[in-house]
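Budget justification note: compute hours in this period were largely spent on complex prediction jobs such as the one shown. Inputs:
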Amino acid sequence: MNALSIRQLTKTYDNSVHALRGIDLDVASGDFFALLGPNGAGKSTAIGIICSLLNPTSGEVTVFDHKLATEREVVKSMIGLVPQEFNFNVFETVLNVVTNVAGYNGIGWSEANKRAEYILKRLDLWEKKDTPGRQLSGGMKRRLMIARALIHQPKLLILDEPTAGVDIEIRRSMWEYLTEINEQDGTTIILTTHYLEEAEALCRNVAIIDGGEIIENGRVAELLSRATMETYVLDMLSKPTSTSSQLGPFALRYRDDDTIEVDVPQGHTLNELLSSLSEAGVRVSSMRNKSNRLEQLFLQLVDRDSKDSLGGSASNAS
Amino acid sequence: MKHLLNERVAFQTLVRKEIRRFMRIWVQTLVPPVINALLYLLIFGGLIGTRIREMDGIPYMDFIVPGIIMMGVITNSYGNVSSSFFGAKMQKYIEELLVSPVSNITIVAGFIIGGVARGLAVGLLVALVSLLFTQISPVHPIITVLVMVLTSITFSLAGLINGIFAEKFDDISIVPNFILAPLTYLGGIFYSVSLLPPLWEMISRLNPVLYMINGFRYGILGASDMPIWQSFAVITFFIFMLGFIAMRLLNRGVGTKQ
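Corresponding output:
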């Protein structure tokens, strides 16, 4: 069963911006799915429609076989949303923010408090339960929004850039928690993020949206295998004997006297690169990816798409 | 059945949140209207009233007390819902409700009961303060309570519609200042419309607030410028009309969805 099915979904805003141009998307039940795209691609618009915050212009959304258009209340009860912007009442206490949403979902007072205690403890917020939202740090606010989205135990959790502005330690702990609820509770998760290493680390499937259209959709591993090139940064103990910017199939660029960037085209291995470097007299002390593979693929795809469509994107719509 | 139970819990949650909101800031929400009323009673009732003595055969202080109570009920019911709904839109936590399986009728009812709670709280406080100036008790207690509650519902609905349309803070102050206040002051708080020249009396009778204040005055003093059924008819008409408009706006996502 699909957790989410979208068919020919379009959205045209009052200012005539076409934010979505007939997208089709399926997310399997239990999946950890990434929805990627540049700013203004249509990600937040799509999420807004799925979560009933926006009205679609046309098309159909189905959540666990329930149509949004005709079974809106059922669909809403199955979805938890962590939006991009902080959208809780900053004058309410942490506990009230969470229990209010529990109440809106029909969860009685005592059960709501039990669930709130469990989830706030799990997200390290229990000690702040009586603190008004405005007094929380950015990371705590993000965690509060996750707690609020999970209080009614949704089958589908949608996170719109949940780790933006969060420090590395908290981000990692949020990754762990999201992986846990995906693997142990079977909660389907849809994630949009600008941290592509986050999508690569967490998600099994990915769709890339640009200009209001899905331009790629498939397994993360499958998409990564299509990356045409990877760039590595190498710290050198000795420089190449030649000053050429090409070393066989590998293009070299100097960052500084001791550091070079090397492009490794698809079909060539790191062993080949290291052999070529060794033959050229280079001794490598350390090596790392310039950016992660998904990021490179993403940039290739988005760049290709923008060249194809020559600016026909839905900028500033989402 | 489960759906109805869920709606009941959602309604209770929304009402509790709304009451907590105005109680948390009671210095801003409950104290100023009581001070206002106190000043009106002092100046109009205590000072000017001693010169006027009677209005329609009723001591002037007694005559103005029902209107001053209703003024508090009207402005606070309206202000509570318009500012609460607009605040929820501004801070975007209205989305908590929009993404939850709460029906629009429950959302409307929750905000309205919040407005009624504040309106009645202010009305009760002003009534207690008025006891410092005069000793009156309702002649028709049921009518008194009914008119107060129904009027509070009417203006809570009007405040909700204002909150739905409002896009900036100015939008929730324009209606109270430029429409609600004149209608209230010209609604017979301080005078009987029977004293006006025929043309102005006819114009005054187009003001719905007149029927509400007079209905309440009838409940407390047993005297009114019009039959009590007219008051109930006008209030009921406005409740249905404003309720219909509020539901239609929410169903269409006006002010809440694009």
